[in-house]
Amino acid sequence: KSGVQGTLFSESFAVHGQSCRKRGFALLGGADSCYLGLTNYFKDKPGYRSFMAGEDAALVNFQALNQLQEGRAHLIAACLCHPDSTIMAHVGGQCADLAQETGAWVHADPETGAGLVCSEGSLQDATFSLAALKSTASLPMHLKDSVSVKSCTSLGFPVQHSANDRCFSKMSVWTSDSADKDRGLKEFQAVQEKLLSGGFKSWAQGKGMDLALLDSVPGCHCPAGSEVALHLGDICTDPEARSPIRDWQWTA
Length: 252
What we know:
By secondary structure, the protein is of the alpha+beta class. It is built from seven helices and six strands. The strands form two sheets. It has a four-stranded antiparallel sheet. Strands 1-2 form a two-stranded antiparallel ribbon. Helix 1 packs across helix 2 (about 70-80). The protein is globular, with a radius of gyration of 18 Å.
């Protein structure tokens, strides 16, 4: 959802206790080459071809949006895969070249789509932190976005509000104006409060989503050593309290 081909999955939501076969996808595609432990199934052969074409189109779109060379876009897509995946076995040695690549994402108003606050870090940290948010009550602010290979300044947020986010300490927070004047920061706080006080549950139920997977304890999606996680203490030790992404140690 947060990576190079994330637009393919913006309306895809995990369902607990249902296999692909039970959902009507009986054509075995084999082990996923990017995400270790996943097996792909397709509805039929035309569905398989359509998905492959969709992946290609999403990659081309990501390349165009971020003004990347084709080879660079392909390398980014590969290097955001699981470190023990088939793809990483082929390109792992080239991924160090991306260490200095900047990534960013923007909290957006779920109703208007207007950008409110931006977070920036390394491309990998930006991608994985956005993935965590997409598995929490913050999802409505990030339903259709994916990571940008750009700075927050280039996305319209030139003022650094904080060098280290309280949740994602490797990410810095940027606004469009100084903190005392910035409307986006205030609106973000209001949207977040609304989502956490029942707004997210209503939104998710309207989409038929599995709340058991997404309704975690606020803040337990943050990495273990973060300011937020340390403040919450033992609350987040219960796996049911955490975002599923939080348990993927390679994304922490």
